[in-house]
Design brief:
This protein is mostly helical. 75% of the residues lie in helices and 0% in strands. The two termini are 37 Å apart.
Length: 453
């Protein structure tokens, strides 16, 4: 008998079960994000102290992408083959241990190689964390709850900037890797109690296991509710699909959307945000003042993520993505022209806000929703792989543009990519707002658009 896991999960009222899933996945993603963003302050410190050169910093960021690209790709296949639980635990061990080891790196070359290993875990977490949460939350609140994971991740950006401001001048940049690594290992232990996704188990034909977990979840939720509403049953899903199915007329346009938008999102983060301390150092500011500037601007990250989270279910995914893209273009065009320090901080803060509205919608909410359960992680992993692969060369473009055209040249590259993103989302994007995941499995972007007219 089919357990109909999707319908049963979608009819559950939000409860302590959902909050526990959110917290355990979210805290792990916080330390994952901390490990990603710590590069911004660490590279500023290594550059200032002579431990690294600007070219080595570019190699550090690029090798991070190599690791994250491989982590995203491998995790997508492992997650669909062995489950969500296996993959979100494996990545914590990888980046936790490698981060602790990085604190003892004797040279920049060793640090760069360890960063590549860390990247394996970092790339994996972003794929599996969002995909797993997407499969547990009912459609009417999916955008808000999955988006909340992104708030966890981007909150680590100002936290890492603040921690660096307090720790690095008094100790060294090495302490930052110790903090990130031990945090990840602690969460690995706490997260062992998370259940496997019943949706995934059912898609793999493991109905007895799916039924057992569903009953456990329903019993837990029922203890807080007078009566559970009946599920809206749906027809059984198609047989498990292969990677070739991602090229069919339904899923291929979604793959295009996923790859293009994640290329843009990665470039926004790693072509601008993560370079803020280095931008300020090259403009002649001290390491301390560059950290302070970066901290105030990076505070826009959780604000933007919160805006994206709160608007996704009410305004819809596509309008928010396109609106934030337009705002980033406008603010990015103004930013290089500003000379006043106060105005620079203000526009920079708003620019980071608009960037992280997109980061939340694209990484956390939109891309995982585009694909059916049995290929969700493979598809999301391939899209993330495309983003990482494309941005492997971004640091070298940033260095070249920075030397020739200052920060304005970097922003011109970003604006061009945003224009492409707007066009692709408008033409090929589907709108998943308050729709069940199974409901969208066989609809093309064009048929879905017609049904909503």
């Amino acid at each position: 008998m089919s357990v109909n896991a999707g319908a049963r999960l979608d009819r559950l009222p939000l409860s302590s079960f959902h909050r526990r899933i959110l917290m355990l996945i979210g805290i792990g993603m916080f330390f994952d994000g901390f490990d990603v963003y710590v590069a911004a302050t660490v590279l500023g410190a290594t550059l200032k102290t002579g431990f690294s050169t600007l070219a080595q910093n570019a190699q550090f960021v690029s090798l991070t992408f190599v690791g994250m690209m491989l982590g995203s790709f491998i995790t997508g296949f492992l997650g669909d083959r062995y489950g969500r639980r296996f993959t979100y635990q494996a990545n914590l061990i990888i980046f936790g241990l490698a981060s602790v080891a990085a604190a003892f790196a004797p040279s920049m070359l060793v640090l760069i190689l360890l960063r590549c290993v860390m990247g394996l875990g970092l790339g994996a977490e972003l794929v599996v964390g969002y995909a797993a949460m997407t499969e547990f939350v009912p459609p009417q609140a999916r955008g808000k709850w999955v988006g909340a994971l992104s708030v966890f991740v981007v909150t680590s950006l100002p936290f890492s900037a603040l921690a660096s401001t307090l720790i690095i001048p008094r100790s060294s940049w090495r302490a930052m890797f110790v903090l990130a690594g031990f945090g990840g290992l602690v969460v690995w232990y706490l997260r062992k109690a998370l259940p496997e996704s019943p949706r995934w188990l059912e898609s793999m034909g493991r109905t007895e296991e799916a039924e057992a977990i569903m009953k456990s979840i329903e019993e837990e939720v029922a203890r807080e509710q007078d009566e559970l509403p009946p599920p809206v049953l749906s027809k059984p899903g198609p047989p498990t699909r292969t990677v070739a199915a991602l090229l069919n007329p339904v899923l291929f346009p979604r793959m295009v959307v996923g790859m293009v938008t994640l290329i843009v999102a990665n470039t926004l983060i790693y072509g601008f945000v993560i370079w803020l301390p280095s931008f300020f150092v090259t403009q002649g500011r001290s390491i301390a003042s560059s950290f302070i500037y970066s901290f105030f601007m990076s505070a826009g990250a959780p604000v933007g993520s919160a805006i994206g989270t709160l608007t996704a279910d009410s305004w819809g995914r596509k309008p928010v993505i396109i609106g934030a893209s337009v705002m980033t273009i406008l603010l990015g065009g103004i930013y290089p022209l500003i000379l006043s320090p106060l105005l620079l901080l203000t526009i920079g803060f708003l620019l980071v806000v608009s960037i992280y509205v997109q980061v939340t919608l694209l990484f956390a909410i939109y891309v995982p929703e585009l694909f059916p359960t049995d290929v969700r992680m493979r598809a999301a992993g391939i899209c993330n792989t495309a983003g990482r692969a494309a941005t492997m060369i971004t640091p070298f473009f940033v260095v070249a543009l920075l030397r020739s055209y200052s920060v304005g040249g970097v922003l011109a590259m970003i604006i061009g990519l945003l224009v492409v993103q707007i066009i692709v989302v408008l033409i090929f994007g589907v709108e998943p707002k308050k729709r069940r995941l199974e409901e969208m499995d066989s609809e093309s972007p064009f048929s879905l658009r017609a049904s909503q007219v």
